[in-house]
Amino acid sequence: MTEENQAARFFSEMAANTEKLVKAAQLFGQTKDEDVAIGTTPKHLVMRRDKVELFRYKPTAEATAITPVMLAYGLIGRYTMADLQPDRSLVRSLLSKGLDLWLIDWGQPGRTERWLTIDDYVDDYIDAAVDRICQETGHDQVTLLGICEGGVFTTCYAALHPEKVKNLVLTITPIDFHADVKDTAAHHGFLNIWTRSLDPEDIDKLVDTYGVLPGEFMSSVFSMMTPMRSLTKYNVDLIDVVDDEAKFMNFLRMEKWLADRPHHPGEAAKQWLKELYQENRLVDGSFVLSGRQVDLKCITAPVLNVFALDDHIIPPDCSRALGAKIGSKDYTEIPLPGGHVGLFVSSKSQGKLSQSIADWLVARDATSASKA
Amino acid sequence: MSKKHEPDAAPAESAPHWADLWQSFSESSKQIAEAWSSSMAPFMLARLLEHPGGFAIGNEMSDAIEKMAQGPRLADVWDFDRKMALVFGAWMEMRQKLANYNAVAAAPWTEASKRFLEAMSAATAGGSNSPPNWREAFAKWSEISNEELIRNQRGEGFLHAQKELLQSGLKLRSRQDDIAEAASAMFGMPGRKDFDEVTRQLTELRREVRALSHKVHAQERSTRPTRPKADQTVVRSDTQPNTQ
User: Fold this and answer.
1) Average pLDDT of chain A?
2) Which of A63, A151, A316, B225 is deepest in the core (most CB within 10 A)?
3) B-contacting residues in A 164-203 (Cβ below 8 Å)
4) Dihedral over alpha carbons A204, A79, A163, A329 (to 10 degrees)
5) Given CB atoms, is A28 within the 8 Å cutoff of chain B?
6) What confidence score (pLDDT) does residue B60 get?
């Protein structure tokens, strides 16, 4: 190609891309906030305890599993990732497979929640929610489905209250916070390295200054883990989605979820970063909640542990460590392709995660109708 | 009509038109403002400003720290001079740490540029092949930059620099909070420390009440006759699932 042709091609492509960026700006102006709805699967409020709310989802299919399933997300980001849009929703998928699905929503913690600890979340909020589900449904036990930090909470709950847990399902859940050193992928485990680089006093100072672990601060740390993706999201990547309405709306929904970054309650953040990320107490049996040691060997319920093989936030080995620590004789691991968030929201993974969970639960918890 | 009266007549006749125009303009402005604020544009603008694209050198954390460190600004009231001096000192220290951090954060771009030029040279085989189109070139640039940025982040130099930046940012914010507390005290208003103390007491009180409530319910349950378990109830396929 001659230099003139190269120059012509360059300017032609630049003009086309500029036009697309202008179109994107127009689309942003035309799209209303209510057009970009996430977390829309119908549910009703059953209980409110401070800012924490317990919801029950409206069933959409014949029941296949007896025991109610309570979904627990973490305190970093919001549960709406599991219900991003109708065709990319773990919640809808599980409902379509006949599960009785409940949700515990932590709300929007602020400085008022500064003194809440993981003890409160596990032994008060989750325990109260479990009791309420049992009261509403007539069951004595529930199935817990934890995501990420929510998985750590449900793991602790299953260890401290094994009599109330029928099954434990974990997704992208860290158990051994130092297992990242075994992961050779350069883009995995930055959060582990970064946390260990801080002094405990730095974490105390951060939380004591702001009263919380600021949501925007953690958001910036997450953005650092995918540096070029973060830099190109609003320019080069936008060029690829602007001509496709479905892709454009998917982009906006994802942005809406990412922008919803609640603060992490202060004292709970200190435990999370110091006792778990830095000192790795959960896996070595020295993590204490409400004066009681969290002994993973006390988990005797069937456990399903799902993790993502390309998870840069929770390296797979951090999740995989659970199997050797629990007392349960029924332990299943399902490693799935994809990343931390992609496991839930990517088009490629849709169906696999929910099918795996539903099949596993039905095999252990079927109604008499689904057994027939 | 005499020429003497014409200049007076024109403004009088056009005044209603101006009033109509002004009203129309005001209504249009209001509609534009409402359309803007109810659209996704302000949200996206905020997101774009949080994530500078193109040539940003990976200093999102320092931007976030800077934003968080910019606390309340107060007029110079007596006894604040010393506190203000402390704030200024902390600010100077933070700027220095930020400069150090930016220097470390900028390093991978040099290496990435070098590698990219080598890659492009290899792709064109020294000029004998056509250069790749912009997408192929950008994909290569993105891949190389990502590797270099991630490698840099995991290095001791980067981790140390961002830790020092965080520490200095927190120190600045803490000095600013001292001023806010002093101002609150001067005007007899509760400050942040008071608020934290109230919430601490409330949280502890709530824990005590719930622990007591739990004990009472446990005692009630132990004296209550047991109810049949849920799985002893027959679930027929023709009944509505999951209803009480």
Assistant:
1) 94
2) A151
3) 186-187, 190, 193-194, 197-199, 202
4) -100
5) yes
6) 59
| Pairwise CB contact (< 8 Å): B130 & A1 | yes
Q: Are A189 and A176 in contact (CB under 8 A)?
A: no
Chain length of chain B: 244
Question: Could you read off the pLDDT of A190-238 as tens digits, one per residue?
Answer: 999 999 999 999 999 999 999 999 999 999 999 999 999 999 988 888 8
pTM across the whole model? 0.83
pLDDT in tens, A50-87: 999 999 999 999 999 999 999 999 999 999 999 999 99
Which among A10, A33, A59 is the nearest to B40, CB-wise? A33
Those residues whose C-beta lies under 8 Å from the C-beta of residue A164, and which sit 6 or more positions away, are: A127, A130, A134, A140, A141, A142, A157
Quote the tokens at residue A221: 């740390």
Provide φ and ψ at A365, rounded to 5°.
-150, 30
Residue found by looking up tokens 């515990």 in the block: A104
CB of B226 within 8 Å of a chain A CB? The answer is no
What whole-number distance in Å separates Cα of residue A282 and Cα of residue A334?
22
Per residue, the 3-state secondary structure of chain A, as one string, reads CCHHHHHHHHHHHHHHHHHHHHHHHHHHHHCEHHHCCCCCCCEEEEEEECCEEEEEECCCCCCCECCCEEEECCCCCCHHHHEEECCEEHHHHHHHCCCCEEEEECCCCCHHHCCCCHHHHHHHHHHHHHHHHHHHHCCCCEEEEEECHHHHHHHHHHHHCHHHEEEEEEECCCCCCCHHHHCCCCCCCHHHHHHHHCCHHHHHHHHHHHCEECHHHHHHHHHHHCHHHHHHCCCHHHHHHCCCHHHHHHHHHHHHHHHCCCCEEHHHHHHHHHHHHHCCCCCCCCCEECCEECCHHHCCCCEEEEEECCCCCCCHHHHHHHHHCCCCCCEEEEEECCCCCHHHHCCCCCCHHHHHHHHHHHHHHECHHHHC
Within 10 angstroms of residue A3's Cβ, the number of other Cβ atoms is 7
Interface predicted TM-score of the whole assembly (ipTM), two decimals: 0.89
Residues of A classed as catalytic: 148
Tell me the angle at which helices A190-197 and B156-186 cross, rounded to the nearest 10 degrees.
60
Q: Do B67 and A216 touch (CB under 8 A)?
A: yes
d(CA A133, CA B25): 57
pLDDT level of residue B51 (50, 70, 90 thresholds): low
Q: What is the 3-state secondary structure (H, E, C) of A201-240?
A: HHHHHHHHHHCEECHHHHHHHHHHHCHHHHHHCCCHHHHH
d(CA A228, CA B144): 10
Q: Which amino acid is at A28?
A: F
Averaged pLDDT in 10-residue chunks for chain A of 372 residues: 76 86 88 93 98 98 96 96 94 96 97 97 98 97 98 98 98 97 92 97 97 95 92 88 91 94 97 98 96 98 96 96 97 94 82 93 78 53
